[in-house]
Amino acid sequence: MSGRRFYRAARVANASMDAWLPDHAVGVEAGKILDIVPADQAPDGETIELGDVSLLPGLVEGHTHIPCPPRVDAFDIISQEENAPALMRAAHAVGLALRSGITTMRDLGAKNEVVFAVKDAIESGVIPGPRLLAAGAPITRTMDHCWFWGGEADSPEAVRAQAQVTVDDGADVLKVMASGGNFTPTSNPRDRQYPPETIREIVETGRTVGIDVAAHTHAAEGIRAAVEGGVRHLIHCRWLSANAEEGFRYDPELAQRIADEGIWVNPTIGLGLLASEARERGDQAPRRNPNLQGPSPREQGLEILRDMRERGVRFTSGLDMGMAYADFNRAPAEAWAFVEDVGLSEWHALRIMTCDTADAVGVGARVGRLTPGYAADIVAFAGDPAANIRDLDQPTFVLQAGKVVVG
Ligand SMILES: [Zn+2]
Fold it and tell me: Count of domains in the chain?
């Protein structure tokens, strides 16, 4: 038959991503999922036995920086280099991500010349990589968080013009730095960068072409400005007080508004988990941002996150790949942290890693579920990640749009 194949496994995720179909097979043809059938209905000559594995939709990773090396000294490298090494590193990163089971990925910050070139190279088949959605250069104040990617803009007019440049270059989403960040030593994570009216300039520019805005913010006042400005995605969302002595300044009413308006939150807690495991191993730590004063204990941040979960806030995946310890094959760490540190069920974490983030990034009608008509993006993990979330790690088999990548 014309390339039709059935992939048989002991456990196949059902279409609603909340239970296994035991001993089933996924039929694939012309890059799409044809059908999911009990194993005894899969035709002999067309069936590939994957054995005692768990089949899931390809992972959807919501937050990467593809030119960034996941090293403690990354700032010194990427704030100074030319485009050529950045392009080569990015090409390596997307290949590694794909082999780790990520078939769709959203990049949330890189130079336009780098990330859109890599996106084109993947789409035209020059290099292997996930389906890539990209924000291009994050909009940021002069010398503030990630200024070196080319998105510096201060006034509302300059901000709107910068957003338009990135839209014209091919952005799938726009990124604004609503607060400072840890990575950039001239930036203060507790500082709000823009008032809501300035953020709204970016939101309106995106709206003209139907794309969302994602706001990086560690600061509570950055969250408020982003929500009032109309962004649809909050990245980090850490509620740091502007007053260092206070630590956090959590506002439950604003959290309720985030839930009620269906704003997606990417808490990047897998990064914290990997960093604390690195500390336990005695690995070198990244340089501390000299502007970040005062306490911000991880456990208190997790407590806030649990309250946000109870209010109904929707979460996406997103490890912040490219930051220290967050290599491009470590996406599952975010799922581990959702289960182990926030108390979500394993199936909830698996939905965040697939269909929920696919919905958030706007491709949920095509990818993120094992259901007929969807892209044949399928990954297999040994063991049962719905029983032990750490079984979600390094797949034994990866299929992208019907083509075998691993296995
Ligand atoms: Zn980031």
Answer: 2
Q: How does DSSP classify residue 355?
A: I
* CA of 108 relative to ligand 1 center, distance in Å: 6
Residues having C-beta closer than 5 Å to ion ligand 1: 320
Q: Are strands 47-57 and 378-382 parallel, antiparallel or unpaired?
A: antiparallel
- For 117, the domain range is 59-361
CA of 339 to the centre of ligand 1 (A): 22
Ligand 1 centre to CA of 391 (Å) is: 26
Per-residue model confidence as pLDDT tens for the chain (407 residues):
468 999 999 999 999 999 999 999 999 999 999 999 999 999 999 999 999 999 999 999 999 999 999 999 999 999 999 999 999 999 999 999 999 999 999 999 999 999 999 999 999 999 999 999 999 999 999 999 999 999 999 999 999 999 999 999 999 999 999 999 999 999 999 999 999 999 999 999 999 999 999 999 999 999 999 999 999 999 999 999 999 999 999 999 999 999 999 999 999 999 999 999 999 999 988 888 888 888 888 999 999 999 999 999 999 999 999 999 999 999 999 999 999 999 999 999 999 999 999 999 999 999 999 999 999 999 999 999 999 999 999 999 999 999 999 99
CA of 181 to the centre of ligand 1 (A): 9
Distance CA 223, CA 215 (A): 8
CA of 386 to the centre of ligand 1 (A): 28
Q: What is the CATH number of the domain that holds 106?
A: 3.20.20.140
78 and 52 fall within a common domain: no
CA of 321 to the centre of ligand 1 (A): 7
Q: State whether 124 and 153 are in the same domain.
A: yes
CATH number at residue 375: 2.30.40.10
Q: How far is the CA of 175 from the centre of ligand 1 (A)?
A: 10
CA dist 399 and 401 (Å) reads 7
Expressed in angstroms and rounded, the spacing between residue 68 Cα and the centre of ligand 1 is: 10
Residues 189 and 271 in one domain: yes
The residues pairing with 32 across neighbouring beta strands, listed in sequence order, are 29, 375
Nearest to 262 by CA among 227, 229, 238: 227
CA of 19 to the centre of ligand 1 (A): 32
Q: Which residues of 343-373 are buried (b: 16+ CB within 10 A; e: fewer)?
A: ebebbbbbbbbbbbbbbbbbbbeebbbbbee
